[in-house]
Amino acid sequence: MSTGVAEKTQKTIGGIRRKFAPWNDPQAVPLISYKNVTKRFGEFVAVDNLSLDIYEREFFALLGPSGCGKTTLMRMLAGFEDPTEGQITLAGQDLVGTPPYKRQTNMMFQSYALFPHMTVWDNIAFGLKQDRMEKGAIDARVEEMLKLVKLEKFAKRKPHQLSGGQRQRVALARSLAKRPKVLLLDEPLGALDKKLREETQFELMDIQMELGMTFLIVTHDQEEAMTVADRIAVMNQGRLVQVDQPAVIYEHPNSRYVADFVGDVNILDATVETVEPGMVTLRPVAAPERRFRIAQDCAAKPGDSVAIALRPEKMRVELDPPADTNVNCVQGEIWDIGYLGDLSIYHVELPGGVRVKAAKPNLTRMVERPITWDDKVYVYFSPDAGVVLTS
Amino acid sequence: MRKGLSWFNVTSIALGFAFLYIPIVLLVIYSFNASRMVTVWAGFSTHWYWQLFQNQQLLDAAWVTLRVAFLTATVATVLGTLAAITLTRYGRFTGRTLFSGMVYAPLVMPEVITGLSLLLLFVAVDIDRGFWTITLAHITFTLCFVSVVVQSRLVTFDRSLEEAALDLGCPPFKTFFVVTLPIILPAVISGWMLAFTLSLDDLVIASFTTGPGATTLPMRIYSQVRLGVTPEINAACTILIAIVTVVVIVVSIMTKRQEIERQKAERLAAAG
């Protein structure tokens, strides 16, 4: 968080991040391993026979709507819940049955859970005191943590004398002070406003790089997960739907669920016409006279009903038809326009009554855009813009 | 004060306060009466206060009462806090409804019945009645009040504070003493004071459960009043009222000051 850290990591971050992919290395030993873990609360299955490996130095995000089991998954690692079935290991050791106060994980709570009757200093020193660390070492570590989160001047304050952002930093410093094997972050930025949240996301990444620690973050905010994480696990109803790098999750979602949950998307129903290696031809239900070609290997067979996922920013809206005949094109009428400043979002109604969204960057300072309500337009996208979803 | 307080409001407030406080004010005034006759004013005097401090019986009774109240409040606070924790924390255990019902029963039980049943119990198990039986009886009926007060605080207690302590390596038992207890302490202290005052002014249950040699102040006053109200009793009551008033004022000033300090701190945080 200090500028020194930022400069240092700025130079190295790209190189390390680009090469960092232990999940592709069959030799790599995971730091955290969930093996067939199930957690039931009475009748309710919070986590359903789930297996997951997380590697050292990874920034891993659990993403999903509330009630998908992501928090339970994290709380089982911290020791606040025990799995009903299955095994969780940390650095090769089985954790099941180990109480939370004997685990080498620390958690940053959503509510921050700062001890209200202790000063900032005592909050950060709390965990170190439990380890019976000697006084000098505690002082040095607390100073270091305060510096890391830029709160040196606030050491003697009580939590209620701090702003929300400062409290968040104290909570972070407290959970980092013991140098845990894994830092667990439960919706850590949920209470901050948008601007502060974005800043803090980058600071979190810097700190994670600087300390070389493994971070596991739980969030329902897909932008947050995309920004900070090396890998994201998208969860639904206690299961993992897709586990991959942010770009893969976004560009190659493996299901309607993931496509819909992560980012903005148009989902068009379609029927498969022909399947060739690297290319699928489909007949969209919304415009049956058209044929869409998607550059993708696909397991579907001709005649199957599938869906095409199209990100709004990958679609173009123009008054004239495209010159390139290779692109997929469909005609429609402007239904609505959302002007966001940097982008304009055009809602286009296709002949079949289906509406799609297309984003167009506003490249010039014109106030009157050439495309307006009720215009007949061409919506088109290249074969490598869309993804065919079979589930 | 809001503008437009109508004469109706003023009258009702005045009548209400008069109804509540005229008897007490009269009692205080007559405790400074020079006359032996309670109802005849014969000039100001502190004679009865001096008299009071020579009345060994009353002083003994006061001492017994204070010891009973202190012991009662302390034990009831410990037990009541434990009951409150169990009731708020361990959501559904077998017999929870029964347990909570049983904790709260003394709250609505007529004192005569509580007193009588305790008396029967003490007779049945053949305990010598006296100081200890009064204390036990008082613990029984004040415990539920402590439990209610502490429970109302625990309901809003953020459990993640305890989880954070566990997570940072603090075992559960120690967590209770370094995190939970300091945070709920104001409620625990209020519970203690409530139990203390309840025990201090109880007459009915104490009368049932007492034995030779253990007479509490309310019992002593009551028995003396039956022989006629003396200004001495007025003086004793005035002192009691003074103690209670001072405690209440001190507590409310403390709470108020804490509140002001908290608000000041929050403004400070918002500014910087």
Automatic annotation (TrEMBL), chain A:
UniProt-listed Enzyme Commission number(s): 7.6.2.11
CDD domains according to UniProt: ABC_PotA_N
Stretches of the chain forming a coiled coil according to its record: none
Residue stretches making up the ABC transporter domain: 32-262
Gene3D superfamilies, per the entry: 2.40.50.100, Nucleic acid-binding proteins, P-loop containing nucleotide triphosphate hydrolases
Keywords: ATP-binding, Cell inner membrane, Cell membrane, Membrane, Nucleotide-binding, Translocase, Transport
InterPro entries: AAA+_ATPase, ABC_SmlMolc_Importer, ABC_transporter-like_ATP-bd, ABC_transporter-like_CS, Mo/tungstate-bd_C_term_dom, NA-bd_OB-fold, P-loop_NTPase, PotA-like
MF GO annotations: ABC-type putrescine transporter activity; ATP binding; ATP hydrolysis activity
Protein transport among keywords: no
One matching Pfam family: ABC_tran
GO cellular component: ATP-binding cassette (ABC) transporter complex
Enzymatic reactions: ATP + H2O + polyamine-[polyamine-binding protein]Side 1 = ADP + phosphate + polyamineSide 2 + [polyamine-binding protein]Side 1
Purpose: Part of the ABC transporter complex PotABCD involved in spermidine/putrescine import. Responsible for energy coupling to the transport system.
Entry-linked PANTHER family: PUTRESCINE TRANSPORT ATP-BINDING PROTEIN POTG, SPERMIDINE/PUTRESCINE IMPORT ATP-BINDING PROTEIN POTA
Subunit structure of this chain's protein: The complex is composed of two ATP-binding proteins (PotA), two transmembrane proteins (PotB and PotC) and a solute-binding protein (PotD).
Family label: Belongs to the ABC transporter superfamily. Spermidine/putrescine importer (TC 3.A.1.11.1) family.
NCBIfam families linked: potA
This protein's name: Spermidine/putrescine import ATP-binding protein PotA
Provenance organism: Ancylobacter rudongensis
UniProtKB/TrEMBL annotation, chain B:
Topology with respect to the bilayer: Multi-pass membrane protein
Top-level taxonomic group: Bacteria
Domain ABC transmembrane type-1: residue ranges: 62-252
GO biological process, one term: transmembrane transport
Pfam families: BPD_transp_1 (PF00528)
UniProt KW keywords: Cell membrane, Membrane, Transmembrane, Transmembrane helix, Transport
One GO location term (cellular component): plasma membrane
InterPro entries: Bact_Polyamine_Transport, MetI-like, MetI-like_sf
Residues annotated as transmembrane: 7-32, 68-90, 102-125, 131-155, 176-198, 233-254
Record localization: Cell membrane
Family classification: Belongs to the binding-protein-dependent transport system permease family. CysTW subfamily.
PANTHER family in alphabetical order: PUTRESCINE TRANSPORT SYSTEM PERMEASE PROTEIN POTI
The name this protein goes by in its record: Putrescine transport system permease protein
Source species of the chain: Ancylobacter rudongensis
The organism's taxonomic lineage, starting at the top: Bacteria, Pseudomonadati, Pseudomonadota, Alphaproteobacteria, Hyphomicrobiales
